[in-house]
Amino acid sequence: ISETMSTNEENKLLLNGRRAIPPNYSNDEENEVPEMEAFGVIPRGFNPRDYLRVEEIYMFKDPHEINKQEHHTDKYYNPKLIVRRGQAFQIQIVFNRPYRPETDQFWLEFLMGRYPQQNKGTYIPILVGSVLKPDQWGAKIIHRENNSIRLSVMSSPTCIIGKFRVYVAVLTPFGILRTRRNSATDTYILFNPWCQLDAVYLDDEKEREEYVLNDVGVVFHGNVEDVKSRSWSYGQFEENVLDACLFLMDKAELELSGRGNPIKICRVASAVINSRDDDGVIAGSWNNVYDHGVAPSAWTGSVDILLEYYSSKQPVRYGQCWVFAGVFNTFLRCLGIPARLITNYSSAHDNNANLRLDFFLDDEGKVDTRLTKDSVWNYHCWNEAWMTRPDLPVGFGGWQVVDATPQETSDGMYRCGPSSVQAIKHGHVCFQFDAPFVYAEVNGDVFYTRMEKNGTQVVEHVDTTRIGQLIVTKEVGGDGMKDITEEYKFREGSDEERLALETAVMYGVKKESIQDTTYQPQTDVDMDFQAQKAVLGNDFKVTITFRNKSRNSYTATTYLSGNIVFYTGVTKREFKKHSFNAKLEPSSSNSFDTVIKSSEYMSDLLEQASFHFFVTARINETGKILAVQKAVVLEIPTLRIKTKGELVVGKETSVIVEFTNPLKQTLENVTLRLEGPRLLRTIKRQFGRVPTNSTLTWEVKFTPMRPGLQRLIASLNSDALRHVYGELNVQIQKP
């Protein structure tokens, strides 16, 4: 009775009147597979030893052997066989006697999960035939010698991906004899960008090397005027990372039968990589308080995050957009889906997929932070994944936006994408998933609106060029920046851009026309704002320039507001207020300088050293308002990394990380991290305090185990200073 109780308990949870078997979304669980599957009553004299029997199975699974070489999986730090779908691989079977094709019959079985079923793709019997077809499972004998045969096995280019269990079955008159469960023969099957029939096929070898096989990348941050970059270790080949990535699909409860479809995988992954609503991988935090966790700026790569989540099953604290995007990129490349990390500068974070961001001004022309709900992120990182879109009309395959940073819900969960870049460019935002939201992130207009005392709104200024000014990714084969803005939008002001916008509006993106809002700008005066490049901790100068193109003299009441902001454009506090009257002579330019002192900003500065300046000027003679806003990011000092001694496989060497504190204050709670994919697992070291102008030196001894060009990445984190990075490319010689 107790036995039936326990299975009933289990079934009560999973079975209902609609399902014959419980949901099947764990790649890890297994069923019992009988070694002898009898056809009926077995006669007394039956001895399985009289029949063909399997003694050994060789998978050719070492990195230097044929399978991992031909399938581009030799970099995975994993002892099992890893192959890509739609491409043949070899295995060798040793029997107890020579194989006789006339009388002996055997086949292979690939199984996944607890309830393998042939129609779900989780039970795959493979018969041995004379020819391999490129679009389906099959096997043929390519070599026979003594008691052994060598098989070439072809997997289907649409099969599900994950870890399969492998059995060899032999037919006897009384039943099927199977090999015993042997985890050493488990085989991972991944997506195959090298196979033309695979949905993720990418036809350029250099792009495949970058977007699938490169385990280091570059994250662009800062802002449009001052693009900054840092390295990120994706580490998709490191030990246990592949298993951690498969676990994410189990966690997201993606049915095993859906795991051959990159669209489904991207969609569930974009939800499970953030912890909102499903206890996913990373907990986001944007408030500069990171208790009981790691500050987002301190991470140097994805491996620590994925492995911590895989072992603890609890969200890892904390991430911001580039951390979500870095981990998502690792997940996609690890499974074989080509992927790249994108940065959109001046990204509209808008609450309702309309194309208007409202900044409300009070009577004096200052931004009213109580009323202003929309924000412009200095930058926002997401990912693109490469795949066909058979669910959409022809022409919308290729790069798809996927975003794991929790911003808005989509079908009830915090996720975004996949959304076709091509559809966004042309305004065809009716095509799934989440295209209107992404379209607004790169195409919004900023409205400066004044609230009259009686509650009417007067639009004082519209900025149509600020949002999505620059969209970039790392170049193929180098660390430079590639501008891909034109893949998302037509040139500002072109006919095509107008048409794409009208299409987007037709498909439901909300846009209010300016005519409704009786907006007439002051056209004969331009106002510009520039900030001097400055290093964190120093004073710097900002300049407001007016160009009066008219023949009239004007006076402008000008207000400068300097705010310390999160990189998401949300203000923490106003640290600088400055008003003055500017006289504007006819047909001339006038510049006005203001000095920003370090003492004004250092006490409240946030980790990305970001300021946001609003300048509003009222032309007194006409009552019209000019408005401009600009993000300014200070230069943050870098870490210096150098190596000491020879860099040879198997020989101990050391790396030295140095940092000089440039601030006028002592740094408290300093932590250093250092890692290098395939070179060095992350090492952390606490340093209590670093006084002003003093230099910290940290020496780490390590022994490189693999030859080739590799990268060391370091970060420094402290209470007053974050986002301090350093990196060094090192060439490890063969012994």
TrEMBL record:
Job of this protein: Factor XIII is activated by thrombin and calcium ion to a transglutaminase that catalyzes the formation of gamma-glutamyl-epsilon-lysine cross-links between fibrin chains, thus stabilizing the fibrin clot. Also cross-link alpha-2-plasmin inhibitor, or fibronectin, to the alpha chains of fibrin.
SMART domains: TGc (SM00460)
Record InterPro entries: Ig-like_fold, Ig_E-set, Papain-like_cys_pep_sf, Transglutaminase, Transglutaminase-like, Transglutaminase-like_sf, Transglutaminase_animal, Transglutaminase_AS
Known EC number: 2.3.2.13
Keyword field: Acetylation, Acyltransferase, Blood coagulation, Calcium, Cytoplasm, Hemostasis, Metal-binding, Secreted, Transferase, Zymogen
Presence of keyword Acyltransferase: yes
Entry's family note: Belongs to the transglutaminase superfamily. Transglutaminase family.
Record-linked PANTHER family: COAGULATION FACTOR XIII A CHAIN, PROTEIN-GLUTAMINE GAMMA-GLUTAMYLTRANSFERASE
SUPFAM superfamilies: Cysteine proteinases (SSF54001), E set domains (SSF81296), Transglutaminase, two C-terminal domains (SSF49309)
Subunit: Tetramer of two A chains (F13A1) and two B (F13B) chains.
Location of the Transglutaminase-like domain: 313-406
UniProt source species: Leiothrix lutea (Red-billed leiothrix)
Primary subcellular site in the record, as a coarse category: cytoplasm
Active site (catalytic residues): 321, 380, 403
Domain of life of the organism encoding this protein: Eukaryota
Binding of Ca(2+), residues: 443, 445, 492, 497
Name of the protein in its database record: Coagulation factor XIII A chain
Cofactor note: Binds 1 Ca(2+) ion per subunit.
Cellular compartments per GO CC: cytoplasm; extracellular region
Catalytic activity: L-glutaminyl-[protein] + L-lysyl-[protein] = [protein]-L-lysyl-N(6)-5-L-glutamyl-[protein] + NH4(+)
